């Protein structure tokens, strides 16, 4: 007869309660906007605000751009480190940890100080101060987000690359006549699908909720909107918090189902 | 000149290509490692040549240099008369089969096989036709829609072979393709590889550490040790006429008796106070120390008239099914004798005095190093 691990279940229940009870509390609070009645009024008010949609859309756009730039930067880098210079992996990992060490406030102040002047090389002005234009400021915002998301994106891609035999797959593709672009696009990226998706969703979550960079660069992003809403309202922020959690769980569900798929990661081969 | 020529190939890790071997000393405090030294080989069109040797002998490094995945430090590699030494791997038209199969997990079998042709932008109809042809060649015509994870190891290796052949390579390279498979599948698949290679007439280089594999499928075998070629020859020649002590000891089981030359002209040798004859006059001088080598299957159990006879004591008897392996102590040496199993065979007892017989031509003599 199997022994029931009682203490294991005790800790599971305690941990679940620790995480679930504040959420349940916030959810209940979000339903109490109409006095004495449980209703979805806070959710309706939140969704009816045009600024909710404009800031949410803006942050989504920034998130997509951040994901694209991050992938374009990190995937080839991680691939090259795995393939050609594995001895540099600790150095690269250290660099990708820097965003944890340098607070976002320092990052944004550094960017503002550096980019409020024209960009010049050898006395030649290449472009005006990026902070003077919307496009320039948005570009700085995306650059800042790429740095903030780098630890997560790099680790997701690195984990994905470790799960496949990058070197042998690359050499096999080379022996069949493939160049580097074909190897990355047709061989490496499809086998990193789950890793890329998890990196992308983590990046998405970071960008959509980010406050510091968006505030100091004065961009109409979702993070500052949420913060401002929290200064004046009570129930709508609670409702939006619950929605954020729900979106996060949906994203994790997507990662789980995609990573179970057949054509994604897995060992290259093995003796049967 | 052959179809595939390797001329004065040296490979030393840790030095720049073009560094002469004599100059290849330590670089930045890290000792340079000579992986392949003075490698020269001509492979004729349609030939299957195996590189055989222990781990670390340089056989895979040499194969990878032919493929373009490593650059030789010095030397030239020519395929069909063209120098490909500095060409990247994707421009050599050399098909390669890897030990770990290296099938692309995200592609079906058909897609894997057609990959090389898609990369070079061949017409779709041509790709489809070639894929069908290759799947039929490897006897897996109905497996096109499956993914690698749905195949056994042996099936995956067949698909890897089909993929390498689909691009119609000038040379086919196989890097220990069967080492990840179990024994029965290995035997089956090596026969398949040889059949396909002969059917297509494709020039092939096969790397293995399994001597049975190398001997059974090759036209010639290159035995390597510590980065150098020890001997090149047909399997029969390598096995029966090893030119160095390493080859003699590495290929097959071999008894080595340290003897003294009594009479070179008469091919008479003395060992532990006993005298026997080799088949041919000896090149060594009288009194020289030589190694007399005998294959276990050429020794007979008991006294046989007209043959050399040596007396010893039975130390171990092992029944292996088709073979009975008997180990006999002859002086300081332990000699192994393989007798074919027969129902009427009387197994000797441990501790018994016994005679070992062998014909003179079974003795192969090398200078003792």
Question: Layout of SSEs?
Answer:
The complex is a heterodimer of chains A (272) and B (369).
Chain A: H1 6-30, H2 41-48, H3 50-83, H4 89-101, H5 104-115, E1 119-121, E2 124-127, H6 134-162, H7 166-175, H8 180-188, H9 193-209, H10 212-216, H11 222-232, H12 235-259
Antiparallel strand pairs in A: 1-2
Chain B: E1 4-13, E2 33-43, E3 48-52, H1 59-67, E4 74-79, E5 82-83, E6 94-97, H2 109-119, H3 124-137, H4 153-166, E7 171-175, H5 183-200, E8 203-208, H6 211-217, E9 220-225, E10 228-233, H7 235-240, H8 245-250, E11 255-263, E12 268-271, E13 274-277, E14 289-294, E15 300-301, E16 308-319, E17 323-330, E18 333-340, E19 353-358, E20 364-367
Parallel strand pairs in B: 3-8, 3-9, 6-7, 7-8
Antiparallel strand pairs in B: 1-2, 1-4, 4-5, 9-10, 11-12, 11-14, 12-13, 14-20, 15-19, 16-17, 16-19, 17-18
Helix pairs in contact in B: 2-3, 2-4, 3-4
Q: Mind explaining what this structure looks like?
A:
The complex is a heterodimer of chains A (272) and B (369). With 272 residues, chain A is an all-alpha fold. Chain A has a single domain, classed as Orthogonal Bundle (MetI-like fold). In chain A, 73% of the residues lie in helices and 3% in strands. Chain A is built from 12 helices and 2 strands. Chain A has a two-stranded antiparallel sheet. In chain A, helix 4 packs across helix 6. The radius of gyration of chain A is 23 Å and the shape is globular. Mean pLDDT of chain A is 87; it is low at 262-272. Helix content of chain B is 23%, strand content 34%. The model of chain B has no long low-confidence stretch (mean pLDDT 90). In chain B, the strands form 4 sheets. In chain B, strands 6-7-8-3-9-10 form a 6-stranded mixed β-sheet, with helices on both faces. Chain B has a 5-stranded antiparallel β-sheet with strand order 13-12-11-14-20. A 5-stranded antiparallel β-sheet of chain B has the order 15-19-16-17-18, with no helix packed on it. Chain B starts with a strand and ends with a strand. Chain B is an alpha+beta fold. In chain B, helix 2 crosses helix 3, helix 2 runs parallel beside helix 4 and helix 3 crosses helix 4. In chain B, a hairpin with a 4-residue loop joins strand 11 (255-263) and strand 12 (268-271). Classes of the chains: A mainly alpha (272), B alpha+beta (369). Chains A and B meet through helix 7 and helix 8 of A and strand 6, helix 2 and helix 4 of B.
